[in-house]
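During the second half of the funding period, the structural biology subgroup turned its attention to how the target accommodates small molecules. The most pressing case was 2-acetamido-2-deoxy-beta-D-glucopyranose, which had performed well in the primary screen but for which no bound structure existed. We therefore specified the complex as follows and requested a full 3D prediction, including the ligand pose.
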Amino acid sequence: MRVWQVLSIVLVTSMDGATSIYEGLRGHQVWSVNGDTDGLVSQLRLRGMVDVLHHSGPTQKLRVSPEFASDVLANFQDAGLEYHAVIGDLAAFLQEEENRDRSVRRESEDSCTAHRCSAPLHAQYMTFEQMEWYLKQVNETSPSKISVSSIGRSVLGRDLWLAHLKATNSTGRSVWIEAGIHAREWISSAVALHIIHKLLYDDSVMADVDVYVVPMANPDGYVYTWTNDRLWRKNRRPVANSSCDGVDLNRNWDDHFGVGASSHACSEIYDGLFAFSEPETQALRDAMQKEKDNLILVLSLHSFGQTLLYPWGWSATKEAPGTLQLIAVGKIFVEAIRAATGRHYSVKNSARDLYVASGTTDDWAMAVLGTKYVYTVELRDQGFTGFLLPAAEIVPCSVEVWHGLQEVIKHIIKEETTSL
Ligand SMILES: *[C@@H]1O[C@H](CO)[C@@H](O)[C@H](O)[C@H]1NC(C)=O
Ligand SMILES: *[C@@H]1O[C@H](CO)[C@@H](O)[C@H](O)[C@H]1NC(C)=O
Ligand SMILES: *[C@@H]1O[C@H](CO)[C@@H](O)[C@H](O)[C@H]1NC(C)=O
Ligand SMILES: [Zn+2]
């Protein structure tokens, strides 16, 4: 009796003291599956029973919640599919990792407060509030170079910020960079902020184009990854008559809506009740449409995989217009990174080389806006740490994207000039 009392007190206290960020993952396991030739995993994903964390060749890594573990297991056994658990409890695993890292990680939080946030953090991921402080500060201190405005509000009323980096010698051409549409892909927003910072002090070819950056396209989801569930992906839309929340904003655009997505609210790739059902995608759509005639390049930053994905995502057999050029310019990006840093990125088609994904930013930009060069960029890494990329990689990852971006812009401008 006494022992149990003591134990429960200890448990309650230690859970109280722990960061709740991983609590949502208590009891979640990571399974590794081999040889799924029948696409059983995809079917389970569509039904919201597994979350695909990584696939490299024939091996897939899945997150399985305690709720569905026995169902998934039964499905695997029926299909004769081999699996083994790699992580028994994600909450414990992540907490342990963080404790180990904590001694290594050190950047003063003081460098980014409500009163002073003059640069994006280098060695730490920023909270949504810190991102806002940074954007507001540079908007105030460099009004000739940057203009920050809200293009709308999220489901829970948070601002969707757009940073316009003004061309010093405008050529009427512009570039669109979207980041953070998937909440758990923290590196994408971190890189977007570092690109903004670079552009503020830049006099390279990038200064000839107007650059629009939405560093945080899914603020509600991002905040939720800090407070409840580090691996949350979708927005925070409550779904009627379902125990699950959230719409995958990168399946909610109006181009082949529903083809490579799920209509089950519990799925990580739930596309919503209808195309553009979400205020986040509506705001992005409207802001992009205003720039329609000037856009020469649209990038949607994600993680992970170190891959440039070109459209179409909705079909593995239909080719997007200008596919050869999309591949060629993608290779310029990849080669610029290789030459400058030695890091390996590759160019792939989403549907053919990974999985069919429809209702995405990039497909919509190409199909509806008619932008010629459109990519989904999967940033670091190749799956070793995946969505949990250490903050020490923020700067090197930003640097490599900067190299790729400059060469691609240079090429597109030259191509346009010579074809006039
Ligand atoms: C940015 O600055 C302009 C004035 O230069 C102001 O009108 C606007 O509200 C500012 N944006 C933010 C987000 O503070
Ligand atoms: C702006 O571009 C024009 C030609 O397009 C060029 O003559 C001029 O020198 C440029 N100005 C600056 C500041 O780069
Ligand atoms: C939710 O369930 C109620 C009662 O069964 C029903 O009236 C309503 O139409 C359902 N809503 C949706 C969006 O399915
Ligand atoms: Zn993503």
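Two results from this model are relevant to the next phase. The chain has two domains: 20-106, 113-419. The domain at 20-106 is CATH 3.30.70.340 (Alpha-Beta Plaits).
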